[in-house]
Amino acid sequence: MPIEIPNSKSAPIYFPNENYKIARYFDLVKFISLIQTQKVFFSRLDKFEDKYEGTVTEVTRLEYTNWYRDFAERKLQDIIKDNLEEHVYNEMLNENEARENYKKLVCVSCWNRYSSESYALWKIYSDLSKGIMITTSVSRLIEAFNNTKEKIQLSEIKYIDYKTGRIPLGNMNYPLIHKNIHYEYEKEIRLFHTVNFTNGLKYDWSKEEIEFGKYLEINLENLIEEIVISPYAPKWFFDLVYNLCELYNIKKEIRYSDLK
After folding, report:
1. In sequence order, which residues have a C-beta less than 8 Å from that of residue 130 and are 6 or more positions away?
2. How far, in Å, CA of 49 to CA of 46, rounded?
3. Span 61-85, mean pLDDT?
4. Residue ranges covered by each domain of the chain
5. For residues 152 and 24, what is the distance between their CA atoms, to the nearest angstrom?
6. Residues 60, 166 contacting (CB under 8 angstroms)
7. Are 123 and 142 in contact (CB under 8 A)?
8. How far apart are the two ends of the chain, measured CA to CA in Å?
């Protein structure tokens, strides 16, 4: 199933310009996995280290609480009687639990807008002396997933201050496509896939090859524009990547980073 191109009925996302150049940083193990399996690994959102991933801001939480209190006062008076605050409190607990459960159902693959290379991204997202970067574009990424069976969505990430900013209400997608402003340097373009869950936002991860996410098929010929080797990598590592690409019939330009 191709990447979903949004229309008026789509869930809200910030669909990126198809001309954007993007990149993904890999260590050697993840790069070998990619070219050997012809699949991209999508990581479960609830396994990310960032505690704000998939959550709403304090401002948004307060806004929703006030909205629900007003709604309950006007529409549920006969049901809740004198227990308004207790009812609102329990509703907020249920809402938070639903968001936490939903995070377990969403798997993401993170890419970065690319205009020039970044020392920071080489250091953070690759094994420094054994790092590899793939460059591509949004249009190539879309084409590369054309024959994938699962539904995938694509969005730019919007960065906000989680202490003072707000995330729009009304859809479970919104927390997936916002991140703390401290990560703004990433300029992330995010692919995300939601598994087919059962009632109660449940999914049996034990039936998957890996319980921390899913591998989704991709066409590497369409995906890869060029392969860039870390500026910190020795010559033997460059040769190793070159030979691996020969072995797996990856016929793309391989070069050292401009930062070398």
Report:
1. 27, 28, 230, 233, 237
2. 8
3. 83
4. 21-256
5. 17
6. yes
7. no
8. 39
The percent of residues above 70 in pLDDT, for the chain, comes to 98
Contact residues for 13 (Cβ-Cβ < 8 A; gap 6+): 6, 153, 154, 155, 173, 177
Asked if residue 16 lies in contact with residue 189, where contact means CB atoms within 8 angstroms, the answer is: yes
CB-based burial label for 34 (10 Å; 0-12, 13-18, 19+): buried
In this structure, are residues 161 and 181 in contact, taking their beta carbons and an 8 Å threshold? yes
Confidence of residue 190 (pLDDT cuts 50, 70, 90): very high
Q: Note the pLDDT of residue 73.
A: 82
Residue 99 backbone phi and psi in degrees, to 5: -65, -40
Residue 187 in this model has a pLDDT that exceeds 90 = yes
- Per-residue confidence (pLDDT) for residue 42, from 0 to 100: 97
Where residue 128 falls (left for φ over 0; alpha for ψ -120 to 50; beta otherwise) is: alpha
Q: Is the pLDDT of residue 178 over 70?
A: yes
Is the separation of the CB atoms in 5 and 16 below 8 Å? no
Instruction: Report whether 177 contacts 158 (CB < 8 A).
Output: yes
Owner of token pair 């999914």: 203
C-alpha to C-alpha distance for 55 and 106, rounded to whole angstroms? 13
Q: If you average pLDDT over each of 61-75, 119-133, 156-170, which comes out highest?
A: 156-170
